Amino acid sequence: MTTVTSPLAGRVVGLGSVPDPVFSGAMVGPGTAVDPVREPCDALAPVDGVLVSLHPHAFVVVDGEGHGVLVHLGIDTVQLGGRGFDLLRAKGETVRRGDALVRWNPAAVEEDGKSPVTPVVALDGTADALTGLSDGVVVRAGETLFTWD
C-alpha cells in the first residue's frame, strides 16, 4: 500500500472540479487535486521514490512498488514556459516524501490567467484501488491525500 501525501497546503477538490477535461475526466488516472494557498511555496514529493519526470509545471515520482504519482502544478501552466517555477531537484534523483522539488507561486500563476489547482494523480491506477479520497478538506503540505493498494 502506498500513502500519497499532499504536495501543497490548500483545499482538496475532487478531480471532477479541475478546470481541464483531461484531469476532470480522469483520463490520466484517478486521484484528487489541491487548490493551493495563494503564496509562494515549495511543491513536495508525495511519496518516497525516484523522480522519473521533472518539468517546471509537473513531476512524477515512482515509488518502490512501481506506483507513479503525477503532480501537475496548475492547469495549462506549461504555457508559461517555466516562468515562475524553480526546479529544486533533478530528474533521476531518489527523493523522500516531503522533499521540496519545485518552488512556485500559485498567486502569480493565477495572475497570469492560469488556474493554480494542482491535480495529484495515481498513474496507471484504478479508481477502486484508491481509498481515503476526500473533497473540501483543508490540508497542510505533507498530510495524507489518499492511499493506493
Automatic annotation (TrEMBL):
GO CC terms in record: cytoplasm
A Pfam cross-reference name: PTS_EIIA_1
GO biological process: phosphoenolpyruvate-dependent sugar phosphotransferase system
GO MF, one example: kinase activity
Domain PTS EIIA type-1: 20-124
UniProt KW keywords: Kinase, Phosphotransferase system, Sugar transport, Transferase, Transport
Entry annotated with the keyword Transport: yes
InterPro entries noted in UniProt: Dup_hybrid_motif (IPR011055), PTS_EIIA_1_perm (IPR001127), PTS_EIIA_component (IPR050890)
Full protein name: PTS glucose transporter subunit IIA
Gene3D superfamilies: Glucose Permease (Domain IIA)
Lineage per the UniProt record: Bacteria, Bacillati, Actinomycetota, Actinomycetes, Kitasatosporales
Source species, domain of life: Bacteria
PANTHER family, per the entry: PTS SYSTEM GLUCOSE-SPECIFIC EIIA COMPONENT (PTHR45008:SF1)
Protein localization: Cytoplasm
Keyword Transport: yes
